[in-house]
Amino acid sequence: MKNKYLTNVYEAFKERYPNEEEYLQSIHEVLTSLDVIIHDHPEYEQFNVVERILEPERIISFKVTWLDDKNHVQVNRGYRVQHSSLIGAYKGGLRFHPSVTRSIFKFLAFEQTLKNTLTNLHMGGGKGGSDFDPKGKSDGEIMTFCQAFMRELSQHLGEDVDVPAGDIGVGQREIGYLHGYYKKITNQVASTMTGKHTLIGGSLLRKEATGYGLAYFVEACLNKMKDTSLKDKKVIISGSGNVAIYAAEKVLELGGRVIAMSDHSGYIYCKDGVNLETIKAIKEVKREGIKRYLEHHENTKYTEDPKKMWEVETDIALPCATQNELDETSVQHLIDHGTMMVGEGANMPTTDKGIALLKEHNILYAPGKAANAGGVLVSGFEIAQNAQFNTWSSQTINDKLRDRMEAIFKNIYETAKQHNQANDLQFGVNIYSFKRLAKAMIEQGVV
Ligand code: NDP
Ligand code: 2IT
């Protein structure tokens, strides 16, 4: 970063938030792109737009106490980072995972703001959740926790205020409990959560949306930038949760072959392609470890360490698990094996050094802010359907999702090209979103 204003802002954030590693990583990444255009935009410094966009509007942090099955009182921490309402009501998922910190929610909320801006729907950005660990908890405990969490969070939500959805550890089951309890204590049936079951106002294909959207985005990149497609490509996908499973489903539909998938404990490799129905049965229905796949299929190898999956020879790698899961060393393995593309289903799954290495070796890199926008897009469709008192068919949603993902690709591809940074989708995404947010900010005055 060369520009003095940007450097000063970044240094100030480092001083203000010295322990927020992920948050600093996510803002540094965007500031580096901005460095290229900052001279053309004196108004950014004039109105101090950069600092104002980076700093979250509001952070809510609260205690969640609940009673487990053994009648022990448990205490967790809950958060909601309402990052930006420049473009619309705060919108973004909830994550339940023991590893979460304020820094992680701040980076997620910041990236969500940029991502939501790309969709061209009027959604601001937010993210939240808790250090609650759903693993090994009974259904009753999950419900009790969700209710205790919502008791506090409900004060900060509303269909025109903040509309959460799922993320790691929060799927349709949790959204159901959260939504049910929200209605109970507010006495209103407003559309304040997305990712609901279709019977209670959810959208068809919301569950599939992030993964399907990722595959559509990857296909668009391959078509335009490599003159090829997913057909007959070998694909490895990290994770075997919501995003990973439906990315795999659409990759298969588009003719690719998914040869490896993982979870937090290890990965399976199957040279002829994994059986997705078995993975769904293990991970979605039984909520067990992916290792159990071995009990159902021969010719499969299981390896304890999920990180080792990046050593598998593949054409395309789709990190769909968590942040910073793909580091420089893993990227080097991909390069050594001739991988042509990395498409991010997870949020910030590739480290800064990993991204730099990919670019240096001309590996097509599709950043998560764009490539995983399908989930929040269909959340937007859910809000639209609820407002219209209507339901759209899965064909309609699938077509709209594909069209919108292709449009996002086109917008960021063209943006990069216009600024003489052709093929740099990371630059394209950051600049496309930032410029819109900056304009929206200046338009609304100092508020
Ligand atoms: P899930 O909780 O459904 O799945 C997460 C998966 O990742 C699980 O299979 C989990 O394993 C696995 N996992 C966790 N840590 C690791 C690791 N270090 N190595 C390998 N696998 C690991 O979450 P989602 O699929 O919803 O979210 C995945 C990512 O996608 C996150 O970064 C999220 O922010 C992002 N995202 C999610 C969207 C959504 O709509 N849900 C939208 C856009 C982005 P295990 O089962 O063993 O715990
Ligand atoms: O990271 C994400 O985009 C999500 N977890 C989905 C957000 C949403 O509101 O659907």
Topology (SSEs and partners):
Blueprint lengths: L3 H13 L4 H14 L7 H5 L2 H6 L3 E10 L5 E12 L5 E7 L5 H17 L6 E6 L8 H15 L8 E4 L6 H15 L19 H20 L8 E5 L3 H12 L3 E6 L4 E3 L6 H10 L15 E3 L12 E4 L8 H9 L4 E3 L8 H9 L3 E3 L1 H4 L2 H15 L5 H25 L6 H19 L4
Helix pairs in contact: 1-2, 2-5, 5-16, 6-7, 8-9, 8-14, 8-15, 9-10, 11-12, 14-15, 15-16
The structure holds NADPH dihydro-nicotinamide-adenine-dinucleotide phosphate and (2Z)-2-iminopentanedioic acid (2IT).
Quickly describe the structure.
The chain has 447 residues and is α/β, with parallel strands linked by helices. The protein has 16 helices and twelve strands.
Give the ordered list of helices and strands: HHHHEEEHEHEHHEHEEHEEHEHEHHHH
User: In percent terms, what proportion of residues is strand?
Assistant: 5-15%
How is the main sheet built? 7 strands, mixed
What distance separates the N and C termini?
28 Å
| CATH-defined superfamily of the largest domain | NAD(P)-binding Rossmann-like Domain
How does this structure look, described?
The protein is an alpha/beta fold. Helices cover 47% and strands 15% of the residues. It has helices at 4-16, 21-34, 42-46, 49-54, 102-118, 139-153, 172-186, 206-225, 242-253, 276-285, 328-336, 352-360, 368-371, 374-388, 394-418, 425-443, and strands at 58-67, 73-84, 90-96, 125-130, 162-165, 234-238, 257-262, 267-269, 301-303, 316-319, 341-343, 364-366. NADPH dihydro-nicotinamide-adenine-dinucleotide phosphate binds at residues 93, 166-169, 210, 238-244, 262-265, 306, 320-322, 325, 345-347, 372, 375.
